[in-house]
Design goal:
Blueprint: H1 3-15, H2 17-31, H3 42-49, H4 54-61, E1 67-72, H5 87-97, E2 101-107, H6 113-116, H7 125-140, E3 147-151, H8 157-166, E4 173-176, H9 187-198, H10 204-214, H11 226-236, H12 252-267, H13 278-281, H14 284-297, H15 303-313, H16 320-327, H17 344-350, H18 352-362, E5 371-372, E6 375-376, E7 383-388, E8 391-396, E9 420-425, E10 428-433, E11 443-451, H19 454-462, E12 470-474, H20 479-482, H21 491-499, E13 504-508, E14 520-526, E15 543-547, E16 552-555, H22 583-588
Parallel strand pairs: 1-2, 1-3, 3-4, 11-12, 12-13, 13-14
Antiparallel strand pairs: 5-6, 7-8, 9-10, 10-14, 11-15, 15-16
Helix pairs in contact: 5-12, 7-8, 8-15, 9-10, 9-21, 11-14
Length: 602
């Protein structure tokens, strides 16, 4: 075992001793009474199965048949979640075949950052995670269930489902994906066309044609953003069937994996001999495995927020220093857009997550001695699913990558270090995703150009005011200010300026997420501007230094700005598009390094 992996895990375990102990005590107490619906009054129970068929009613009158609750993020507007429309029927049939019953416990909202990007609706995006967690708790609060299947894919949906499910951690929980859409327009070409549009060389019609060719079918977007990072995490943490993350929708294998998820969770209930609740799967070692997977794959920066919140829901305390120390020893083993030109379908075909887990276990970079939904040991996840005569089978993962431009072993990594870097200094603490940034752009010292909105930046670009070296500073974008939106509206314009030979970078207390690209960006600055962070006091012309290699984020001569007055918060971002309903969220939200959550200590 890598000694840094061991020491970080030990530190997390020691730091979390009290909170983790309290959490486990609550879960053990909840499990102590056995199958919960057996304790419901007759009226309560009758309400709970009133809509069931006669066979299901008869089964649920007793307490010896597992009842599986389905919590789903289905909607038919979003490509990633549209395939879930047919899952409940498949699950109910599979449950019956396994001597169980399945009920649709509840739905959770699923919003898409791809739709809301650059609009007012994006201000609800991060907070939707905690709404999903609350919705999951409401769905499971009926106390009718012996196990749970969570159906979700994208950015805030999987973290929200998991946070909510952890409040019911005495139940077995399995996550069920839907898979990515088949490959469309290549990601490199898509990025080029976006930059052409930003530069004014093509029009909206050409841009829309390109975007429609990239996002063209049911399934998850194929770049390696937060949605596909979610799927990676569920495998690395043992909460999703091996090799199932990137199997396309509508295939025989996809349906067989969904059926097997039902069988897996049915075996793990309190009613059998192999009881394995979520609380005993998601422990300190599983969280560290998730962080390691994020670093090795060059995954989404959003998970430096989400993983903190997920861990806290299980009584586990992690911070960005844990990410940084692990990043120093975890090699980057894959290149998937925006870290390369391939998409997740190409990655999966080259060997995928099973190859990575196997190789990293062999090199002491993952904890093998963990519980998973399959039982004890992460080695169970070094296999891939197959179809043989209409039945699901499993084979050992391949020992060699089928494409070294996409996927490599630890002995020949793309980089000796992980894809994320912590930078600190007199401007606070921030995350830099360096896996997609060319090494010659890993550091910059340049004058600040301060903006208070993405549109102000675009206007300055269109007015030819940015034809020089500069660091764009966009503050008042944190969770307490406006919900911490992603700021990808800036990406094509910064890319154009960098292509023109200018040294440019971004500093913000907002987010950029898994699609963070080739421009150096110090994001999620904490403390945020509204919480007294010094980023609020930066002025045009201040010299900013970002050095991802040295881990530095500073304003040169920073002592001089301490007496400056911070600008007022723009209250126009607090109403319209439903934002007025989230005032309590903004008031209570923790900082980014504490998960930007309603549920933590401020």
């Amino acid at each position: 075992m890598n000694p840094v992996l061991e020491s970080v895990t030990e530190r997390i375990t020691k730091r979390s001793a009290t909170s983790r102990g309290d959490y486990l005590a609550r879960m053990h107490a909840a499990a102590g009474d056995g199958p919960v619906r057996g304790g419901l009054a007759c009226s309560n129970l009758a309400h709970g199965f009133a809509a069931c068929g006669s066979a299901e009613k008869q089964a649920l009158k007793g307490d010896v048949v597992p009842n599986i609750g389905i919590v789903s993020a289905y909607n038919d507007m979003l490509s990633a979640h549209q395939p879930f429309e047919t899952y409940p029927a498949v699950i109910r049939k599979a449950a019956a075949a396994n001597g169980a019953v399945a009920q649709f416990a509840g739905g959770v909202p699923a919003m898409c950052d791809g739709v809301t990007q650059g609009t007012d609706g994006m201000d609800l995006s991060l907070f939707s995670r905690d709404v999903i967690a609350l919705s999951t708790a409401v769905a499971l609060s009926h106390n009718m269930f012996d196990a749970v299947l969570c159906l979700g894919i994208c950015d805030k949906i999987v973290p929200g489902l998991l946070i909510g499910a952890l409040s019911f951690g005495h139940l077995p929980v399995v996550f069920v994906p839907a898979g990515p859409m088949v490959s469309g327009l290549g990601n490199k070409e898509k990025a080029r066309i976006r930059e052409e549009y930003a530069a004014g060389r093509i029009g909206r019609d050409e841009l829309l044609d390109a975007e429609s060719a990239a996002y063209h079918a049911p399934g998850t977007c194929t770049f390696y953003g937060t949605a596909n990072s979610n799927q990676m995490l569920m495998e690395f943490m043992g909460l999703q069937l091996p090799g199932g993350s990137f199997v396309n929708p509508g295939t025989e294998l996809r349906d067989l994996l969904t059926q097997d998820a039902v069988a897996t969770v049915s075996k793990a209930t309190h009613l059998g001999d192999d009881y394995l609740p979520l609380a005993e799967v998601l422990d300190e070692k599983a969280i560290v495995n998730g962080i390691v997977g994020l670093l090795a794959t060059g995954g989404s920066t959003n998970h430096t927020i989400h993983l903190v919140a997920i861990a806290a829901a299980a009584g586990i305390q992690i911070d960005w220093q844990d990410f940084a120390e692990l990043s120093n020893v975890v090699p980057q083993l894959s290149r998937v857009y925006p870290n390369g030109t391939a998409d997740v379908n190409h990655f999966h075909a080259a060997g995928g997550l099973g190859f990575m887990i196997n190789d990293m276990l062999d090199n002491g970079l993952l904890h093998e001695d963990v519980n998973t939904i399959l039982g004890r040991g992460l080695r169970d996840f070094c296999q891939e699913p197959t179809v043989n005569a209409g039945k699901l089978g499993w084979t050992d993962v391949q020992s060699e990558s089928l494409d070294a431009d996409i996927l490599r072993p630890c002995s020949n990594p793309f980089s000796a270090h992980g894809g994320l870097q912590l930078v600190t200094g007199n401007l606070g603490r921030a995350i830099v995703k360096i896996s997609a940034v060319d090494a010659r752009h890993h550091s910059i010292t340049a004058p600040a150009r301060v903006f208070h909105s993405q549109q102000a930046f675009v206007d300055a670009f269109n007015n030819n005011e940015l034809e020089r070296d500069f660091v764009a500073v966009l503050s008042r974008q944190g969770p307490r200010a406006n919900g911490m939106p992603e700021l990808h509206k800036l990406t094509p314009y910064l890319g154009v300026l960098q292509n023109r030979g200018f040294k440019v970078a971004l500093v913000t207390d907002g987010r950029m997420s898994g699609a963070s690209g080739k421009v150096l960006s110090a994001i999620q600055v904490t403390p945020e501007a509204v919480a007294g962070g010094p980023i609020a006091k930066v002025r045009d012309g201040d010299m900013i230094c970002i050095d991802a290699e040295k881990g530095e984020l500073s304003l040169n001569g920073g002592d001089a700005f301490g007496s400056r007055m911070a600008p007022e918060v723009d209250s126009s971002a607090h109403s319209g598009m439903g934002r007025e309903l989230f005032a309590a969220f903004r008031e209570r939200a923790t900082g980014a390094e504490k998960g930007a959550s309603l549920f933590g200590e401020r």
